[in-house]
Structure formats: structure tokens, C-alpha cells
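ugh ok fine here u go
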Amino acid sequence: MARLPPTPTRPPQRASPRALRDAIRDKALALGFDAVGFAPARLAPDARRQRLERLAAFVDQGFQGDMGWLGDRTEERVDPETLWPGARTVVSVALNYGPANDPRAVLAERDRAAVSVYAQGRDYHDVMKTRLKALGRFIWDTYRHDLKVFVDTAPLMEKLAAQQAGHGWQGKHTNLVSRQFGSWLFLGELLLSVELPADEPEEDHCGQCRACLDVCPTKAFPAPYRLDARRCISYLTIEHEGAIDRALRPALGNRIYGCDDCLAACPWNKFAQEAREAAFAPRAVLDGPHLADLATLDDETFRTRFSGTAVKRIGRNRFLRNVAYALGNSGTPATSLPAVERLLKDASPLVRGAAVWALSRLAPAAFERRRRAVTEPDAAVRDEWSSPLPEERAQ
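structure:
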């Protein structure tokens, strides 16, 4: 929740609710947002109950994995007016980050790293927050209405808010789908203390399509509109802090930060547009870099290389864990083994453990010889050395 600077001294302008809504929409588009919509902050009792029941079922089944915060403040999470009792209108804004090409193409280049489209440019939180604050400042300076700004930093269900505001609908992959932008929208919200005319909510247009569900490498969707984060590659490579389940590691492929498969498979992307925001243009260091090069990063070079990007927030060790798994999946021992050897000596047990698994995949004979004489102080890494080879586990 972002705070605005001190209040100005000039008197506020008066505007009818409709004129105020139009002025906010015009200002948001002028600031560079690609879409802006309005929804009531107050929920009908039935809608509120349904949201609470769905969230409770998700948490009760453990689908949130390590993201325990999803089970906290549930009343506030489902109801904007409970989150802030002064809220009367949700202003939902969106930024398009559509890629120029199919992001799945890099998956065939197994010695290169696949990084989710959303993380290849500047961290969207920074872009969105700057513009939302500017929009909030315009509203406060001009009309003096109380407000609060949110960018994925408070318990607000932004995809549901976006659907109510008419941006799109929550598809079977649980992400927002837009008829204009496909599955490629960043979302942010501003809660206003004044009631404004609402836009029409968007309806679900998924129909019988299962493209997003069927393409998932780890089968993370137990049913349409339900995601088990514990199997989701985006969750595993970004949010999960420890070693990734051995059974899921081969399905990671060369994905080292996030996964775009379900998003890219959506047929509505035929209407998607390439992002016009320069900040979201892919950086060379994140547009299919070689895995072997990434394996050389120490903490300082990691921070420097990924400064200003979403990648930086997971830290060097978790990042190198993902790189090691991808090296193990590369199927190119000639280029990948030297990098794995380097990671086997890493100071981080998390990285060493992942490198042990990579060695077992790339060079089973060498792995078998070395584990007989290995000395390792960390119990988790010793477990990796003592685990059966892939062909032994398959028997």
C-alpha cells in the first residue's frame, strides 16, 4: 500500500461522479496505462461468501505451498471494503507486457535459459507503482478524494477486481485473460473514497478450451480454475526456497525463472499486442542466456547483472539452484559438465545439492564413482549424493 506525499494547499475542483471517472480514465491512459476500469468496492453478500469459500478451500488443500500469507487476512483479501473501510470504488489499471514472439521457442534450445516474459525487462512493480502514485497524486491534488494505491503489495485479489472492472476474466489457468491483450497484463489498483459509475464486468470466454491446462509440464491444475502451486514451475523456481521435489525436476527443462507455457498456449493471444512500454523490453542478459555463463555468477555479479529486474529478488543461491537443475536437463554434457563441476564446489548447500543431481543426470558413471568417496558437511547435500540414479529410480 503506497502513501502519497503531503497534501497541496489549492482548493479542490468539483466534478460529477461520471466526469470524475472520465477524468481519471483519461489521466491513467495519458500516464501510459493500457487499460483502466472501475468496479464497486462493496461486494454483495453472496459474492463475498463465495470468494471466502474458494480461498478457504485453496488453503485447506495446501495448494498455496510455502506462501502461507495467502491464508492470512482472508476477510481483507476477498473484500476491498474490509481491507479499507473507506473504499467505495476500485480503480483497476493494466499494463500490457505482450512478447514479440512465442516465449516457448527457447525451450528447444536446451543449453540456454528460459526466463518468464514478465521478468525479462524492468521490474513491473517499480513501473506500475510510479504511475499509480502519479495517478493518485492527480486525483488528490485536483479533487481531494482519499485513496490508497496497491501493486501486488497488499491482500487484494487483483484478478477478481480486474474482472469486475471489465479488463478480462480469470481463465482456467487462473490468470487474467483479455480479449484485447491475451494473457499478458500487469495489474494494479487504486481504492477511492468516492463512489463512481462502474464498468461492466467481463464474462468468461474460455468455453470448452483446455489448451492452458493440457500444456502444463508438471500437471499443476487439478481442475479448471484451480492451481496447485506446489507443482507450478513459476512457484517452484521463484517462491519455493528449498530443493525442488526430485520427481518434478526433469519437467523444469531449461526454465530457470517462471514458466509461460499456460499463458502462451491461450488461443486468445491471437489478439495480443506486443508491449509498447520500453521498460518491458527484454534485457540481453535475460533473453535466452547460456546456462554455462550463468553458472559463473557470484553474489556481487548476480546483483549487478539483474539490478532493477524481478529476478534479483530471489537471490543468487536460489537462482543458481534453478540453473543447476536446467544444466542437468540440458542433455549436453560437453558444455554443461564444466559448469556443474563449478557448482559442485559452491559455498551454498542449496546450489551444491542441485549440482549433484545435475551430475547424476549428465554423467551417471562419474556420479557413481564420486559418491563413494565424497565428503560433504551438509546433510541435505549428502542425501543428494546417496539418492538412486535416475535409471535406478525408474525400476
